[in-house]
Design brief:
Strand order of the largest sheet: 1-2-3
Family: Belongs to the 'phage' integrase family.
Protein name: Phage integrase
Structural class: alpha+beta
Number of strands: 3
Keywords: DNA integration, DNA recombination
Organism: Caballeronia catudaia
InterPro entries: DNA_brk_join_enz (IPR011010), Integrase-like_cat_sf (IPR013762), Phage_Integrase (IPR050808)
Helix content: 25-40%
Length: about 120
Amino acid sequence: MQWAWAHGHVAANPVSVIDHILPKQTGKKEHQPAMPWRDIPAFVRKHVAEFKQGEATRAALLFLILTAARSGEVRGATWDEFDLKAGIWTVPAERMKAKERTAWRCPRPHWRSSSG
């Protein structure tokens, strides 16, 4: 809109009055409430175990739940980040929101594929 006003395509910039019309934003963030840990097994049985849209998606969703990692960290995971013998997943700092290297202990019984 600024460009259109500056180049004479509109007589006035209607956006310039927004700060005077709309109420100030509080900046307060409302976070999604966490699921109580006791509800997770039933949730997994109902929504994840029967997920039919693809084995890779189902496995990634289960891994996301088990590690409580961010979805982008799970989606961007590469095999070299995993120590399968130790059951550790180490995410490099450049892929972390806080830019700090993080390691998760992963529940190894869930690392097997559905084929065994």
